[in-house]
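User: Okay, second chain of the day. Same drill as before: sequence in, structure tokens out.
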Amino acid sequence: MSSALSSPIRPLRSRLGCKTCKIRRVKCGEEKPNCVRCTSTGRKCEYEGTISGTFSSTPCTTSIQDHPLSLLPNTVWRERRAFAYYFQQASVSLGGGLDVHFWRSIVPQVCRSEPGVWDAIIALSDLFESPGQDPRSPSPKHRDALSWYSRSVSAVRQRIQRGDIDIFAGLITCILFISIEAIQGNEQEALQLYGQGVHLIRTLRAQIACGVVSATKASLLEDAIVPIFVRLGVVALTIAHLPVSGLLLDDDPVLVQEFVSLKSAREAIALLSTEIQLFERTCIEYRHESHSSHLHPELMGRQMVLSGRLKDWHTAFTVLIEGLHAKGVLSQQQIGTGALLLTYYEMSFVILATCISSSHMVYDAYTANFQNIVEQSSIAINALARSDGTQPPFTFEMNAGFPLWFTCLRCREPKIRRMALALFRRGPQAQGFYNSAGAAALGESVMMLEEALAARANQGKAESLRQESTNSAVENKAYNLDHNSDVAKADSSSLPVSQDSELAVFVPEEARLGPIGIFRSQDGFPPGTKEEDVAKWNQRRNQTFLRFSRNEYDQTSDTWRVFHDYVPIDN
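Assistant: Same drill. Structure tokens below.
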């Protein structure tokens, strides 16, 4: 360390930057196709080699077919048919009704000049039309989709290597690639692409600030592309630590007075919901680091500001809906969209009201809000159905899945909880980044584990716990799988998931699971795991674990403490 500190300070140099910055021995921002440093000083900007850390370098999860697509019969006809299906069917479901212009106008326009975008569109179309294919024995349509996707990835890489790809075309291709990975169930690849898309957005914003991007493209970025990434981030923030905060501008938020459309109301609640989720995470981190159940006055002030903005949103939304009713009967799409936005409002309201408390019992005061989420979600899901009554296989947009999943985790009223889970399973097979079946199984595991723990506590296994204590403390316990612990002993299999809640029990504080996450043994165990547990579970490299925290009462110190645990769950 001392030698490093004593070494002379040299100018920052870029390994991946443009030729001009390398020659000048200055730090390059690596913006494409022209870096900000060269553009702002009027210098010629040139690149060489591949770009690392962009979506073009993300490995395609599909393999190029043994036979080139161009050698197969009727190739042109199949491509045109795939594009027609995208335009007439897939684009409507992908955009959720409010973004038809983006998916049916902007995206097709770009594909005229970008072959990679064309290939991505027809690949997504075939996957959308025939989802759920077994990759070990793909159908001809699925093989077409994989070939087109590989061809798209190859085309985009070549354009970026030459340095002549339009960055807006790159962002649109990134959105299409996220969709392709997500509909195949490749969650991690989709999340990685999302992070790289955020990087491209920030690069574009830097170029806009320097005046090198036209006002038309700047408007397209902020009005169409950034909102898509924000809405995707709303869905994924709970489980994945996405860089969505990098999309939020530092400008003071404009006070909401009125909405001119359901779309403007949606963009506002998406941004606000994102801020509220980030605020909740900040509160959790503060309690963890400060070992205190009381929040800093600055955080309490921030909560009041967010509460005021959420109230203003609801007032403006109510006025909008009343105005739409006054113009005539609402369409099924308008009814569904209005119901959907209310589910995000109710979810945000509950998060904001409860995040200042370290107790999970506080959620019981918002049962009516959870009930409204379920009721409004039912309306939204019915509106999303296609003409034959089925749900689309994939939706890229905000949908009722996330508020329903939130209800499965945070609401402990058994009937509402089970209704939320049942509705969640009615939705599209893939929502945003996630496979719905996997998310539903995770929500069910949490519910069953909580109720199993509650059954043990209510049978007298935890009679010494004193819920009336007002003292609290936070303690980090090593993650472990102690087979003598309450968690390991809980037999959740004895509590089936059904609409009949007679078997369900009251879930006390010590049985309620806090922030959750999942990990696989092949990715490494959390710090503090016992060696015998690592040795045992490493034999099953694909074993998935549920990681969570819960409050336990310590009689000795008369305090509640936060303990962390993990348990294996079915893959």
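The chain has a mean pLDDT of 79.

User: Thanks, on to the next one.
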